[in-house]
Specification:
Layout (H helix, E strand, L loop, with lengths): L6 E9 L14 E2 L2 E2 H10 L3 E8 L3 H12 L7 E4 L7 H10 L7 E6 L6 H13 L4 E6 L2 E2 L3 E4 L3 H4 L9 H7 L4 E5 L12 H10 L6
Parallel strand pairs: 1-4, 1-6, 4-5, 7-10
Antiparallel strand pairs: 2-3, 6-9, 7-8, 7-9
Length: 212
């Protein structure tokens, strides 16, 4: 499969939350000299995915301004969607995103705003998923599950039925656990989540970035 071939996958970046545990908006965290949400959008746009959808909610005007400032005309290459129900949990963003992706997409990557990943990791994950006709694919580093997950849209109804009380996407993963592909990734960034300031500081050290 040629590296430049576009894959029929929609990337949905879930960036609507309020970052309660972090204490400051995760979307604005400095990551390689730019706001984290800008980094993620750029990595997604440089990937082989056919489209990039970004779900915003809390502080939507500020985040739109950040994206406009840093992306300029490139902003037109993504599909921005407002989730007015973001306070009810991440599942609302997942379902809103799935309802708004291209009809031509066969699979979807659900990427949280606290999990920075480089384009190469996204491409490896998507290529393995599509190339092997996987139902669900997650990156793993050694014995730890990472993110983001890629789901076949044959599971659309399952994905649209997730609930916060049953842990959202985990219920889908559990239902089809025997068909989940665990793709081993050598880069430890695949299991990094930025939920707290301590985790953010650790991630900066891991990736060789200066502490703030």
């Amino acid at each position: 499969m040629d590296k430049q071939t576009t894959l029929p996958i929609s990337i949905i970046i879930l960036a609507a939350g309020s970052s309660t545990r972090m204490g400051t908006p995760k979307q604005n965290l400095n990551w390689y000299g730019m706001p984290l949400i800008v980094y993620q959008v750029k990595q997604a746009l440089n990937s082989r995915a056919k489209e990039v959808v970004v779900i915003l909610g809390n502080q939507i005007n500020e985040n739109k301004k950040i994206l406009t400032t840093h992306l300029g005309p490139t902003l037109n290459n993504i599909h921005l969607i407002e989730n007015s129900e973001w306070g009810s949990g991440k599942t609302t963003s997942v379902k809103l995103g799935i309802r708004n992706i291209s009809e031509d997409s066969t699979d979807v990557m659900l990427w949280a705003s606290d999990s920075p990943r480089p384009t190469v990791l996204l491409d490896d994950l998507m290529a393995n998923h599509v190339g092997n006709n996987n139902l669900i694919t997650y990156p793993w580093h050694k014995d730890k599950e990472g993110h983001p997950g890629v789901f076949s849209l044959s599971l659309r109804q399952d994905l649209l039925s997730i609930q916060e009380k049953s842990k959202g996407l985990r219920e889908v993963v559990k239902k089809y656990e025997t068909k989940v592909v665990k793709l081993q990734i050598s880069d430890p960034i695949s299991v990094v989540n930025l939920n707290t300031m301590a985790e953010y500081t650790k991630a900066l050290l891991l990736t060789g970035q200066p502490e703030l």
